[in-house]
Each structure stands twice: as C-alpha cells, then as structure tokens.
Amino acid sequence: MKILVCIKQVGESESPIQIDDYGRWIQTDAITGYQMNRLDEFAVEEAVLLKEAYPGTSVDAITLGPDRSAEVIKRAIGMGANHGVHIITESEGYLNPFNIASRIADYARDKQYTLILTGVMSEDQMQGQVGPMIAACLSLPWATAVIRQQLASDTKSVLVEREIEGGRRDTLHLQLPAVLTVQSGINRPRYPSLSNLLRANKQKLETFQVGDSTQPQLRENVVRVTYPENSRSGTILTGTQQEKASRLLNLFRERALLR
Fold first, then answer.
1. b/e sequence 32-41, b meaning 16+ C-beta within 10 Å
2. What pLDDT, in 10s, does the model give residues 198-221?
3. Number of other CB atoms surrounding residue 84 within 10 Å
4. Residue 81: which residues within 8 A CB-CB, separation 6 or more?
5. Which of 6, 30, 86, 142 would bridge with 179, disulfide CB 3.0–4.6 Å?
C-alpha cells in the first residue's frame, strides 16, 4: 500500500504579520520562523500509524513552496515517512488552492496511491480546499474532517467517520483509492526521532522546479489584503472613581443591562 501525505510550511504563530507595500500579500521576510502546519501533523501521524499497522506500506510526504519548505519534509521523514517530494516554486506570494492541488494531482496521477491524506485546513489561510480539489482533479472519492478511519481487511475500501455541523458525525464507506482530509484529535502526533531526523538530513529529496510561467490557468486573483477592522469601538471613562462609576452605571441602564 502506498500513501501520499500533503503538508505545508506556515509561519510560526508568534511571528508578526505585515502586509507588503502593494497591499497584495504579506511580507514573508518579516516572518521570524516557519513550521509544519500543525493540522498536517495529524495527517502525517495517521499515515505513519497505517504504515506500522500494514507491513509493506510506504509513506511519501509532499509539499509545494519555496526552497525553505524542504524543512517540513524533513520533519515528516523524522516522524516516519519514507520519501520526500518538494515541488519548488519561484514565488513566495499567494498560491491559490487550485494551483497547489493541480500540482500535487499531476505528481500523484500515475503513482497508484491507495490513500492521499491532508490536514483539514492550513493554519494561515484556513480554506480547506486543497484536499477536495486534489480528489476532483484525480476523480477520486473523498471525505473531509475525518476523525476516524478504518481500512477494510482487503484494503480496497475505508470506513470513515467525519465531523459535521452542530457537533454531529457522519459515516461514509469509500472505495479506495481515496482522498481524506484529517481533523485534529484523530491521533496524537509523535515527535520526530533522532535516528529518523539523521536519515532525513542525509536523504535526497525528489524535487521539481516550477516556474511562474507554467502555472495552471488563473482562476482567482487577490485584489487586496487588509488588516481586520475593529468591529466595535470602546469607550474610555475619565474623571474620578465616583464619576467613572456613575457614568458606567448610566451606560448599563441606557443599554438595558440594568434596571
């Protein structure tokens, strides 16, 4: 059995977010550190658990991004993946979900993967579209927000339980090959082992150089990026403690919070 797990490099949550001078995207050079998308860690762990449960299974980890993105592939190999694939992009700007999905689908098309796993969404854009788009490009069945999966004994189908709105769960029976986007909480991602990290540093990644001129037909465009606007304006009370207390009491009464 062959499994492909899709991972993404994102900025660390503590890094400041600055919009570039053109208002078209963020300044990547202002980000102080990068890491694997934490939701993708659950997908990697699920792939490695399947590898451990089914002897002979191999796990490939793939990412699309600039040169620095190779670090997340090394982490995936450190967690137990066998092989790394890096689709290198020239630009550090916005990559739309279809562009990412079509690139990954082109790579996976003739590789005969039994399962393709992704995180449920990325921490930075939170769109959750890449997984379903990969499935659409490859004409494969798919399920999102999977919280539990169980392969059939013949490994020709998979039973999945997925989270849906309202705290409910949905159960699906999918024929393999299939694409699953994995929800957080499905497992507990392991730390990379030292031996695997040493292997990752020595292992040669499979790389593909992608130029901007060869990207798929543009389907969407970023018009402008802005900081979130304050939805409410605060009121600062001034004066003595007695005056501020009196003013606050009047505000509560005006808003019918007190009678």
1. eebbbbebbb
2. 999 999 999 988 765 456 677 777
3. 23
4. 5, 44, 47, 48, 59, 60, 61, 73
5. 142
